[in-house]
């Protein structure tokens, strides 16, 4: 079918089947900005176009509906090859990061500014609900719109984007846009999918419906007969190479506990077969013809289930050590189960015990714990639990591989190209110098693309077939087949004296690594090794165990384990301070490490090897508190309405007139946040001016915002304090700011 329409200002003929999605057709014409980040389900918005003057998802438009239409993509924004004013503002505002949806965002904001030259924050927020924002918050987009308006109307940015420092230098200390920002925001072909040729073959993975099962038999004969099927890879014909998918270090402190395909599947979505086919349709058909007979086995899904006596074992094959094998290894391996289990290979001892579902463990400490707790005037003992979380990058895991002049070339969206090369070398059995990894732009990773989750299979498929092979996870596969954050149970026991001195600190961490041990030692260890050294405590100990389960695998994740331990220690310390009747700030200052302090605890916090004592550099806590108080002083001096009382919503630092009526209004939530800021500043410094300001804000807010009859606060007041309307705070903010302010102030004052 031929469809005549107007695309980006030019008359054009689009060709395809009547029911083809317009997005696919546009992308194939070279409109790379129109990317499919949500499997055509319409929640991410990267496929947004202007269709007959309206914002539409091109995935939801069929080709035949485009007859006579006027269509604009982000490519239309370029003016003589230069970015338009919105795109330049986005780059300047720093919101072009992974940039998978940046072109669509630029198109949306340009459309908004054409209709509303000076849009309100509500109008900006409303139009952005059509696109999934993963790289920045709305505040950055509000700034981008403000900058765009300045550039449009005045020819330059007037608003300070970021503070400058180091005036003697030209580059360092100066705000600068992302070097490749122009390419990213304009939709240039910078991602893996943009580099895939039309003749690329498709890789489809058949996945397990069971959390734990042996593969009794697999019959691929009917699938192999299909025209357009180049190869079907299973446990029966894949390399007998055990490896791990973690891209971290070498030697890698993660067990080599999987093959490309295993004879035992260990989670829902585990690999069963890989099909290389001419088209996705042929691959899907081939997958439906593969006959698999499973022998389901009992599974474990939590740390508690995995550690229970007699629990089903996730791995129960022979264990191999490349260094440091224990003396009883031969006897240990006699306990192995079904031959289909496969094996687990350790590069060096990780204190593992697969017969107890322990993938790795470590323990250590300094001082005398019994003595430390005996000296304490009070003890707090608490347990904190974190959950399993997906990374949700807008660009799913993707790889394109082909053989060129006898060398395997991989275009990858990876955070660890050299680890990709090394692991693909192991799996394929070819030298590293025969592998060329091209790290394309990563459309969001957040740790998950530090794991090699698709590259080794795609590379092997291309190597054995000698065909160009493209693989892209579906959005569903992102959730059940890829790495997640390690769920952790952090148990903290802390004792202290009445003067605020911590006498003993014990941490017990139990982590869930899923069925394979990617990063299974380092990430959980960080919950201890990146937190305990922050405090000068003579008696400290930790006990870490990482368990195999049949949940989706875990791996690298933002923060890399540290936030879990930090949260546990700081929450326990706050509770201990209350129990001792000690000011929380005083307790933190008394126990935090200082410059020159020798960290003895680091002797036991190495990754499988003894650590070393390290002196402390500056931690900068006093400077941070001082700077925070300066910011509060600056904001209060300019934000407090000296004539009418209350905190202004906006104020111009150059005393220029406001531009919108609501700039002069009084909103409920700045008063809530001011109450928290003044209370915390007073608690941290003891300076009376913060207590006085707290009372000023509180007395004015409660006398003007409070709804005495019905409860809660009204949301919007005029400058003189009169009520602008009868609305309370918005649904998505009121139940955050106000209860939080009341709780925080009461907590800081010792009422809770």
Q: What is the strand content?
A: 15-25%
Taken together, the total number of domains comes to 6
Return the structural class.
alpha+beta
Distance between the amino and carboxyl termini:
70 Å
Gyration radius from CA atoms, angstroms: 30 Å
- Oligomeric composition of the shown chains: single chain
Examine the coordinates and then state which fold CATH places here, giving the name of the CATH topology of the largest domain: Aldehyde Oxidoreductase, domain 3
Number of strands: 26
Total helix count?
21
- What ranges have pLDDT less than 50 throughout 5 or more consecutive residues? none
Q: Looking across the biggest beta sheet, what order are the strands in?
A: 8-10-6-19-16-17-18
What is the CATH C level class of the largest domain, in words? Answer: Alpha Beta
Briefly summarize what is shown:
This protein has 752 residues and is α+β, with helices and mostly antiparallel strands. The chain has 21 helices and 26 strands.
Secondary-structure blueprint of this entry?
Layout: E1 2-7, E2 10-15, H1 22-28, E3 48-51, E4 54-57, E5 70-72, H2 85-93, H3 102-115, H4 121-128, H5 138-154, H6 181-186, E6 201-207, E7 213-219, H7 221-224, E8 229-233, E9 264-265, E10 271-277, H8 280-289, E11 291-296, H9 303-307, E12 319-321, H10 329-333, E13 344-346, E14 358-366, H11 369-374, E15 378-385, E16 398-404, E17 407-412, H12 417-428, E18 435-439, H13 455-465, E19 469-472, H14 475-480, E20 488-496, E21 502-514, H15 522-529, E22 540-548, H16 562-580, H17 584-591, E23 598-599, E24 614-615, H18 621-639, E25 666-667, H19 668-685, H20 688-704, E26 716-717, H21 731-748
Parallel strand pairs: 1-5, 6-19, 12-13, 17-18, 21-22
Antiparallel strand pairs: 1-2, 3-4, 3-5, 6-10, 7-9, 7-11, 8-10, 14-22, 15-20, 16-17, 16-19, 20-21, 23-24, 25-26
Helix pairs in contact: 2-5, 3-4, 12-13, 15-16, 18-19, 19-20, 19-21
């Amino acid at each position: 079918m031929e469809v005549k329409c107007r695309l980006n200002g030019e008359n054009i003929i689009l060709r395809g089947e009547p029911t083809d999605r317009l997005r696919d057709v546009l992308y194939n014409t070279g409109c790379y900005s129109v990317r499919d980040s949500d499997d055509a389900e319409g929640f991410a918005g990267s496929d947004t176009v202007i269709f007959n003057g309206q914002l539409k998802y091109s995935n939801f438009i069929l080709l035949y509906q485009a007859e006579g239409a006027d269509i604009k993509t982000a490519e239309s924004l370029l003016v003589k090859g230069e970015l338009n004013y919105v795109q330049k503002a986005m780059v300047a505002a720093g919101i072009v990061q992974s940039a998978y949806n940046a072109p669509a965002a630029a198109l949306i904001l340009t459309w908004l500014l054409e209709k509303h030259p000076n849009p309100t924050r509500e109008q900006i927020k409303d139009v952005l609900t059509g696109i999934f924002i993963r790289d920045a918050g709305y505040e950055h987009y509000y700034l981008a719109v403000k900058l765009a308006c300045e550039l449009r109307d005045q020819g330059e940015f007037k608003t300070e984007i970021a503070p400058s420092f180091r005036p003697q230098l030209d580059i360092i200390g100066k705000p600068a846009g992302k070097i490749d920002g122009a390419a990213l925001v304009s939709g240039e072909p910078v991602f893996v999918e943009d580099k895939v040729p039309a003749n690329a073959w498709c890789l489809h993975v058949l996945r397990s419906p069971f959390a734990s099962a042996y593969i009794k038999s697999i019959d691929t004969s009917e699938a192999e007969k299909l025209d357009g099927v180049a190869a079907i890879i299973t446990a029966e014909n894949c390399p007998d190479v055990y490896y791990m998918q973690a891209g971290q270090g070498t030697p890698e402190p993660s067990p080599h506990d999987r093959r490309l395909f295993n004879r035992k599947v260990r989670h829902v979505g585990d690999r069963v077969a890989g099909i290389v086919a001419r088209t996705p349709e042929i691959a899907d058909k081939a997958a439906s013809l593969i006959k698999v007979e499973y022998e389901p086995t009992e599974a474990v899904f939590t740390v508690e289930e995995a550690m229970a006596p007699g629990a089903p074992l996730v791995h129960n094959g022979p264990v191999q050590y490349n260094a440091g094998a224990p003396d009883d290894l031969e006897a240990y391996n006699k306990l192995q189960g079904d031959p289909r289990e496969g094996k687990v290979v350790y590069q060096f001892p990780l204190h593992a015990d697969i017969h107890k579902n322990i993938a790795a463990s470590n323990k250590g400490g300094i001082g005398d714990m019994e003595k430390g707790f005996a000296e304490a005037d009070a003890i707090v003992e608490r347990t904190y639990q974190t959950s399993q979380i997906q990374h949700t990058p807008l660009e799913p895991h993707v790889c394109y591989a082909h053989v060129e002049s006898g060398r395997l070339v991989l275009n990858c969206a990876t955070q660890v190209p050299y680890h990709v090369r090394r692991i693909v070398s192991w799996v394929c059995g070819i030298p590293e110098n025969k592998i060329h990894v091209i790290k394309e732009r990563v459309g969001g990773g957040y740790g998950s693309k530090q794991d090699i989750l698709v590259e080794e299979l795609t590379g092997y498929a291309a190597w054995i077939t000698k065909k160009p092979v493209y693989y892209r996870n579906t959005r569903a596969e992102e959730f059940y087949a890829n790495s997640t954050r390690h769920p952790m149970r952090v148990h903290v026991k802390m004792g202290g004296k009445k003067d605020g001195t911590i006498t003993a600190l014990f941490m017990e961490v139990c982590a869930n690594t899923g069925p394979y041990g990617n990063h299974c030692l380092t990430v959980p260890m960080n919950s201890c090794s990146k937190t305990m050294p922050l405090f000068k405590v003579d008696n400290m100990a930790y006990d870490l165990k990482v368990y195999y389960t049949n949940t989706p695998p875990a791996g690298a994740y933002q923060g890399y384990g540290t936030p879990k331990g930090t949260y546990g220690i700081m929450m326990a310390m706050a509770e201990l301070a209350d129990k001792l009747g000690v000011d929380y700030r005083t307790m933190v200052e008394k126990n935090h490490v200082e410059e020159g302090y020798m960290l003895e605890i680091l002797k036991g916090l190495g990754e499988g090897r003894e650590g070393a004592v390290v002196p402390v550099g500056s931690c900068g806590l006093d400077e941070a508190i001082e700077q925070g108080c300066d910011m509060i002083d600056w904001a209060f001096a300019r934000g407090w309405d000296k004539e009418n009382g209350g905190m202004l919503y906006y104020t111009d630092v150059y005393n220029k007139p406001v531009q919108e009526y609501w700039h002069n209004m009084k909103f409920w939530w700045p008063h809530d946040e001011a109450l928290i800021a003044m209370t915390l500043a007073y608690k941290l410094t003891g300076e009376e001016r913060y207590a006085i300001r707290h009372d000023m804000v509180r007395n004015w807010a409660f006398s003007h915002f409070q709804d005495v009859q019905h409860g809660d606060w009204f949301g919007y007041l005029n400058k003189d304090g009169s009520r602008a309307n009868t609305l309370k705070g918005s649904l998505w903010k009121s139940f955050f700011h106000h209860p939080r302010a009341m709780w925080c102030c009461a907590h800081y004052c010792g009422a809770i």
